[in-house]
Amino acid sequence: MKTTLCRLAGTIALLGVMPMAATWAQTGTSAAQIQAAQQRLQLVDISAEERLAALRQSLLQTAMDGPTEVKTTQWIDHTGALRESSSFTSGMLVRGVRVLNEPAPSGAEKVQMKDKQAVVAKNCERSGHERASPWHHVTLDVSISPYLGAAHRFPAQQIARELRQQIHHRTAQSAHWRVSDKVVYANPYDKALLTQGEQNLPWRLSVVVALDPQSTPASPTYVTRWEVAHRQDRALFVSQQHWVTLPPSGGSVAGLDPVVSAQIQALVEIFNRAMESQLSCVPPQFEAQLDPSKILRINAGHLSGLRLGDVLVVADRQKIPSRILEPGNLEGVVLAEVLAVYAYSAELKTIAGVAPKGAGQWVAVPYTP
To answer: 134-148, 228-242, 271-285 — which one is most confidently predicted on average?
Structure first.
């Protein structure tokens, strides 16, 4: 059974939700309200091991409530003894896991199983008071078609420049995604010497500016093709086409006509809304690897919104969530803290559970308290 998690095959998305301390600003608060607030305050003051145990229990309960495929293989070995092996594949789709035995905070995600699917009963937009958790970091590559004629290259370059500026400006205000320009190195030596890990970013947005086949001298029209893909998924995450029409005079050294700039701003806004809609329920997921010194590193840093002390859930995506019911796999889910953070990477320290060892396709997902 193929498990799809948040439209990225073979990845996980675990989001622990722990209620924050309640506050009130009016007199006459009832005793029940005070008691409930005190209980929530006590729930926050628990150890990392207790948080991990509650998270594992929530995952296990969600898997048991959903569909599970059981495969059993029997054979006779060389001694004539009957042997048997079983595997358990969970069909659950997880966008968020609420820790059990806690009062659910307002607006918390509720996962329900229905017809072998998880149905998320809420809008995944962040609330206004919530700190922006790490966001999706996207490599931006804006280029012009190599098939453009000499007369059309300069206007296309102006459009590409305006697109890049508008995309940076718009995404800088987004709670879900940010962009960094693709870095091109002159040679492999420069790349090995100067790279900061930007080539390992999980997402890529490619925008190509080309001349529309229906373009005429009286109405020069360029088509912009937008494609977003994940490093581990061949399928396009978002794909759009938008058109930009220039005045008959085309481009000029003074810059694009304000009307054209307004067109580009509008199409950037359209694309941003599509990305916000797609990413609003997709928690950021980072690849985690053990370096030669056995330090766990992820392909995200402060440019992805990570900060020192942030806590992440680390697990092997080959086992979680699809094979969560098999013995020993749940113990591979651990909590880790950001120990050092750089522009495009970070080092993690395990604070609950057994630190990842050996080969595995490890993934780190932000843990939201």
So the answer is: 134-148
Domain ranges for the chain, please list them.
Answer: 4-73+84-132+284-366, 136-279
Q: Does domain 136-279 have CATH number 3.40.50.10610?
A: yes
CA atoms of 128 and 300, how far apart (whole Å):
24
CA–CA separation, 206 and 194 (whole Å) = 23
pLDDT at 334 over 70: yes
Mean pLDDT of the chain: 75
Full DSSP string of 258-286: HHHHHHHHHHHHHHHHHHHHHHTT----E
- Residue 274's identity, in one-letter code, is A
What's the pLDDT at 251?
63
Residue type, 133: S
The closest alpha carbon to 335, from 369, 307, 303, belongs to 369
Cα-based distances in Å from 206 to 86, 141, 237:
44, 5, 12
pLDDT at 186 over 50: yes
Of the candidates 183, 362, 175, 201, the residue with the CA atom closest to the CA atom of residue 287: 362
CA 205 to CA 281: how far, in whole Å? 19
